[in-house]
Known about the structure:
Number of helices: 11
Radius of gyration: 20 Å
Distance between the termini: 29 Å
Helix content: 40-55%
Oligomer: single chain
Strand content: 5-15%
Amino acid sequence: MAVLNDEQTMLRDMAREWADNEAPVTAFRKMRDAAPAEAFDADSWAAMGQMGWAGVIIPEEFGGSAFGYLSLGLVLEQLGRNLTASPLAATAAASTAIALGDNEAAKAEWLPKIAAGEVVATLAIDEGPVHDPAKIATAVSGGALTGTKQFVAEGDSAQLFVVAAADGLYLVSDDAGVTRSPRHMADARSHAQVAFAEAKAQKLGGTDLTARVVDRATAALCAEMLGMAEQAFAVTNDYLKVRVQFGQPLATFQALQHRMAKMFTELELARSAVEGALEAIDAGRSDVDQAVSLAKAVMGDTLHLVSREMVQLHGGIGMTDEHDAGFYLKRAYVLETMWGNAAYHRERFAQLNGY
Length: 355
């Protein structure tokens, strides 16, 4: 477990309290039923901007706090616990691309707005049903970008796109030449197909920047997955203690104790991997790519296990829409595949280590 400083501890506790009081799972259910086009609560996003969460990884000179990726992960973990629908993860990843890029004008124009929570930004990387950075056909000619991106998170509402082309990352900030097509997925969140037809684009950096940004987006995603898995475990554990069967609580059955013990140990390992990846980013280590692939592989397997056990161990009620278990399962399905599933990252980790 990462050792937190006082500021990080305060940030984590504040995020947990806010999520529990202002964005419980019932708020997600309400959003799901209302089905707004942006698939998140605009007031909650505005509140996050006011609390400074949108600027956690943005340099201070551009209005952020520069707390780093571990701090961002602490916030995303607490939001993940309650399935809080927000564009924070996507916007943070896009702001990273701008901050790490070479375009100083883009930094000055957009980072202060993102830090204030005034802009929703996102990454538009993948062009197929699965994550494959080797298959990017989007091209830029004379500052005009053309290509189609699939399953862009927050693509329905984003005002700013960081787009991967064959030669690097570009910034698209104008809707001219941009067509959005909503994709309705199991998790009731925004995942749009976005087509760019000679859209005006500013270059941020080359393909090395693309790889660095995707690694950071993956690490942030892992933090949300960790929060989901922790809460799914906690809810299931509490249920087993109060549900009585054959005259005794389910928690007294040894077979179920073994299943819970396995999940607990897997969660502890996953936390170490996820926090290790976030700390590697903040420390600027040379093995960030390996740490991120390790975290996504371990976290993907762990969330897969815990979300499904949550449904099974709740029995029949876990299969109904009235219970929250299905929300965790559906969101897990999406996040397990985003930025590469566990199998993809195990193979990547092996290749990075020369196997």
